[in-house]
Predict the 3D structure of the following.
Amino acid sequence: MDDKITTITDLKNFVEDFVQERHWSQFHNAKNLSMALSIEAGELMDIFKWNTNEECERMMSEIKTRQEATDEIADVMIYALAFANRNDINIADAIDQKMIKNREKYPADKFKGHF
Amino acid sequence: MDDKITTITDLKNFVEDFVQERHWSQFHNAKNLSMALSIEAGELMDIFKWNTNEECERMMSEIKTRQEATDEIADVMIYALAFANRNDINIADAIDQKMIKNREKYPADKFKGHF
Amino acid sequence: MDDKITTITDLKNFVEDFVQERHWSQFHNAKNLSMALSIEAGELMDIFKWNTNEECERMMSEIKTRQEATDEIADVMIYALAFANRNDINIADAIDQKMIKNREKYPADKFKGHF
Amino acid sequence: MDDKITTITDLKNFVEDFVQERHWSQFHNAKNLSMALSIEAGELMDIFKWNTNEECERMMSEIKTRQEATDEIADVMIYALAFANRNDINIADAIDQKMIKNREKYPADKFKGHF
């Protein structure tokens, strides 16, 4: 699978099939999935917690750390997709709408290089 | 934008343009982005923390809560995409590979309806 | 050690000795410790994520789950104490001051049984 | 209130009184409190996410950031104490026991200055 040709719906279906095959949708309510998402984000941070920003950059060029981080970002995405599946959220539209708000909050000409 | 026709690369480019316009890639190292991702996941949980699973389901059918949750899941996705952009991760492939591990860890015939 | 006679300073010193013996204070800056704290909170949540509130209550009366949760809450406390040590924060005073704000925000007569 | 003379039981009672006055113990099950704890840890991280370790150190010497961080660490402690109250956990003992495990896992002579 490749990002260039894989749509969000492709990934949503991929995750949904896995969930359905195990009859796990009973556990996939909004509350539980928000927790699962947060826990996986914590596992991603766990890779970087004691290192400087520069060390973390270097670590991401090592195969082992890179694979760990890739697995964790996959887990984050899987639960975000599962949350969208269960709650019928159009992710592309959600990002589009949120970015409109972000552009208003952070106009490019006023927030260049800082917050 | 719609999940049916939007590819991951479309979304990656959408996020990358926003970051580039503000010269923010200097802040987008692996450590910082993992924190930003976790913080947004926390904000999603904040909507549900004091409610039962059932109440959370009902809340997701109310426009206001639904919009809040949709904005938060968008933020989670935006930082996951930014993490993938900065670290050159193919998300669709990462999910594909992680799902292979998940299927081995949780065979459908042994984990039906439970963990 | 017992909560009835153990002061916050006792616990702060207990944690500080452990850190000093390993020369780990170099890693204990505010940013890193906030991440460590969040990661441990995620591990506590991990125990409960797929269960209903009622199931979680029952689980906490089982020795195994109870021990896991006790270890995780200890980890959370250890990093909160380490954060206070490194940044010279008086925890009892911080709680006292925060509770004044909480009482103003949530007057008891207006928030009885709800938020 | 001062860390030198304030016991954990003092703080537990302080938090418990606040909860009882609002009849909020009904919301304080293990699952919900683990979420609340994680959310507050996320708010603490939010102060530091885009800054380097060194900048975060400097920020903690500014009154405004220092007060924000102090309030967030207080919130983390309040929910950890509430979790211990609801689940009858002796925090000092929990830390003592966890530190025994930590000393075995990280002997001081083998982990001096690194992990």
